Structures are given as C-alpha cells and as structure tokens.
Amino acid sequence: MVNVAIAGGTGGVGRTILEVLQATSQHQAFVLSRQASQHLPNTITMNYDDTDRIADILERKNIHTTKRFVPSGYAIPYPQRALEFLPQLNDYFEAIYELRRSGLEWTVFHNGIFLDYFGTPALTSYLKPNVFVIDMEHKVAAIPGDGNTPVTFTYTFDLARFIVASLDLEKWDEESRVIGDEKTFNEFVALAEEARGSKFQVFYDDVEKLQRSEITELPGHKALYKQIPKESFQWFTSIFERFTADGTSHIARAGSLNERFPDIKPLSVKNMLDRYWKNA
Ligand SMILES: NC(=O)c1ccc[n+]([C@@H]2O[C@H](COP(=O)([O-])OP(=O)(O)OC[C@H]3O[C@@H](n4cnc5c(N)ncnc54)[C@H](OP(=O)(O)O)[C@@H]3O)[C@@H](O)[C@H]2O)c1
C-alpha cells in the first residue's frame, strides 16, 4: 500500500481519480487543495508557494509523491511548437523539464479527448460542461477538417481506473497511454445519428478557418459564454480542434496501458451513445 496525494483532487479529473482510488484499491488517498474542505476527508490545505512546508507535509504523511510523480496532463502529446500559439503550455513543458532533472520516477498520461463531453448530462462526470465539435442535445456538428482523422476518446472514470491500476506497476514509462476508443468525427456523427434516430446538421470547419481562431457556433456553446467569453472560447477550442484534425489527438495503442491491463474494458463511443442517447 502507498499513500497517494492528489493535487487538485477537488477538480474534475482529480475528484474522479480520488473516487476510483478509494473504491478500487488498498492505497490511501490524500487531497491537496488550496482551500480547507469539510466534506472531503484527508484534505491537506496547501500553499504551493511554500515549498519547504510542502516537502515537510509530504514527508510527514509518508506520501509516495516523494518518489513518484504524475504531472497534470491527461490530454494529448502536445508538440513543442504549440507554445507559439498556446503559451499556457509553458508551465506544462517546464514541469516535464524539471521532472527529467529531478531523479523522481514520473509519467504523464495521454488519453485524447474526454468522452464525457458527448455523454453528459446522463453520463456521470465531474468535468465542467463543454460542447466540443458535436452538440448531441441539439443534433448539430461542426467538424474540424474533413472529419476523417481518427481521434482517441476516453471516459474520465476509465482513465482513473488505468491510473489507479498503474500505481501497482513496478516501473513507469515517461508516457502512459490510455485509449478509450478511436473514431473519426465522421464515424462518431454517424453513430450519434443512429443512436438519436435522426440526421444531424453537419458543418465542416476547414483548417484555415480554425487557424483564424474561428469555429462554427453550435447551439450549446451559448450557455458556456457565461464561464468564458465567446472570443476566448473560440480561440481555445479552435486550437484543440486543430489537434484533432492533424492527428495529435490520436493516441498510439502500441505499448499503451490497455495492453498491460486488458481486463479494464473502457466505455466505447457506440456503447456510450446507445446507453445515454437512445430514447433520450
Ligand atoms: N483531454 C481532455 O479532453 C481534457 C479536458 C479537460 C481537462 N483536461 C486536463 O485535465 C487536467 C485537469 O483538468 P480539470 O478540468 O480536472 O481541472 P480543474 O477542475 O479546473 O482544476 C483541478 C483542480 O486544480 C486545482 N488548481 C487549479 N488551479 C491551480 C493552481 N494555479 N495551483 C494549484 N492548484 C490549482 C484546484 O484545486 P483547489 O482549488 O482545491 O486547490 C482545482 O480544483 C488538466 O491538465 C487539463 O488540461 C483534459
């Protein structure tokens, strides 16, 4: 048994990892949070600027983080050139750089796009709501590129099951790949139409349009502008849509954790659609 600290265990992905860890393993979970919490047990309040105190707390609680570390990622293998248009990635690349120098054992998880965005609200998810490419509720899609590039889709709870399983691996590779399912957006829309029993209205946004930070507005986007202004939303989403059109969001299956843990059967796109959208 090891003690695992989940920094940001109050958030979307973190809370999912916490729940799966508590339900399926012998390992002891602690949550690191900038705020004190009454409802989450074992929460340690953190000031991330105070590194001496962090080290002291982690050592006193005998947290395995002092030997093994997983930086926040849970997405795609960001190319270094992405820094030119997504400077926020600087912290991510810095973290990887520091980990390489640290002597810690570490791994970063790559899982593609979260399947949750296409199954909520019926599908349980702690992610903040988002409408990405396919607006399931309103039966409209705005597909990046020609829609024929495969994309990896993974449900957060399946990702968490692979993460928890990998705690028992003797050795971690620098990259841990998790594949829920692989579909092109054209295939995804065809399955969605089948599940919903009618045709979707489908638009195509070519790469030039995405490079101008523009995407076709879907009906479900409007509700999101309360959290993030339209212009910022379009800019951010167009970048991630480009990562689907150019194949960056297709995670290599060879050597993935799926091969090491064949008993974990992730939710497929079709099963999700049939379960949560047929007769919806
Ligand atoms: N592949 C995909 O489709 C996809 C989609 C969404 C997210 N992701 C990735 O998944 C990861 C987690 O995303 P999420 O949506 O779960 O995140 P989130 O809910 O926004 O945040 C997670 C937690 O991080 C902590 N936090 C936030 N800012 C912080 C800061 N500056 N310093 C220290 N702690 C901070 C907060 O905890 P406290 O307030 O309790 O400290 C927060 O609850 C990210 O790397 C994100 O890029 C991937």
Automatic annotation (TrEMBL):
UniProt entry tagged with the keyword Oxidoreductase: yes
Protein name (record): NmrA-like domain-containing protein
Family designation: Belongs to the NmrA-type oxidoreductase family. Isoflavone reductase subfamily.
Keywords: NADP, Oxidoreductase
Source organism per UniProt: Aspergillus avenaceus
A GO molecular-function annotation: oxidoreductase activity
Superkingdom in the source lineage: Eukaryota
Gene3D superfamilies to which the protein is assigned, alphabetical: NAD(P)-binding Rossmann-like Domain, UDP-galactose 4-epimerase, domain 1
